Amino acid sequence: MRRNGWRRAGIGLAAVLAVCVGGATAWGAHHEGKGDHRHGKKHHGKHFEKRDANGDGAISKDEWMAAADARFAKMDADGDGSISQDEWKGAHEAMRKRMKDHHGGGH
Predict the structure, then answer these.
(1) Which end of the chain, N or C, is less surrounded by CB atoms within 10 Å?
(2) Cβ neighbours of residue 56 closer than 8 Å, sequence gap 6 or more
(3) Measured between alpha carbons, how far is 51 from 67 in angstroms, rounded to an integer?
(4) 3-class SS at 29?
(5) How many other C-beta atoms are found inside a 10 Å radius of the C-beta of residue 19?
(6) In the predicted model, is pLDDT for residue 59 greater than 80?
(7) pLDDT higher at 75 or 28
């Protein structure tokens, strides 16, 4: 891989990690009583089932990484294998809109 290719891969990995860490942080705050608990166990069960691709009741590393890869691909609007600042901002705004719409204007 060219030197620039490694740099782009590193930036892409950093973006995926930021999304994962950000999601984990929000999930943790939600479960520490700081978030919106309107959806309860049913809501979280759907998220778990979506990631548990083979339905074995556990999320394997491969299943987790497949979900991360899908999120990355969704953010990489031009399909060039990296996420620009504009793509990052666009994905963040789209997520905020989905959350606002889903939660009835909250957040």
Answers:
(1) N
(2) none
(3) 7
(4) helix
(5) 20
(6) yes
(7) 75
